[in-house]
Write a structure and sequence with these properties.
The chain contains two helices and five strands, in the order αβαββββ. The protein has 107 residues and is of the alpha+beta class. A hairpin with a 5-residue loop joins strand 4 and strand 5. The protein starts with a helix and ends with a strand.
Length: 107
């Protein structure tokens, strides 16, 4: 039951962005892709948005930070210190920040 709730939260995180990324290529094959979770003008604003966007998320943990390309891996954690989702975040060419969830296609 616990995993169903986690999957529902992750699914809802990608469903509210308005961006469609179903992972299907034009020929019908599944392709791995990033699914948008949130965008913000700064990294601090992105972190605050991720905390406010979903009530179950109580904290963020930065796992890996590559200052060379300004990319981070962040875990969203609930009140019981359990993982809700793991996301990649980076600074885009226009200077804004994006957080996206990697969706691995499995044949």
């Amino acid at each position: 039951m616990r995993w169903i709730r986690v999957l529902a939260v992750v699914a809802s995180m990608t469903g509210c962005t308005g961006e469609s990324t179903n992972g299907d290529s034009p020929d019908g094959d599944c392709t791995s892709h990033y699914a948008l979770v949130a965008n913000a003008p700064t990294r601090a604003a992105l972190e605050q948005k991720l905390l406010r966007q979903h009530p179950s998320v109580k904290s963020l943990k930065v796992l890996d930070e590559d200052t060379a390309d300004e990319k981070i891996t962040v875990n969203l954690i609930n009140a019981r210190e359990r993982l809700v989702a793991s996301l990649d975040a980076w600074r885009k060419d226009d200077g804004t920040w994006t957080a996206q969830r990697w969706s691995q296609c499995i044949d």
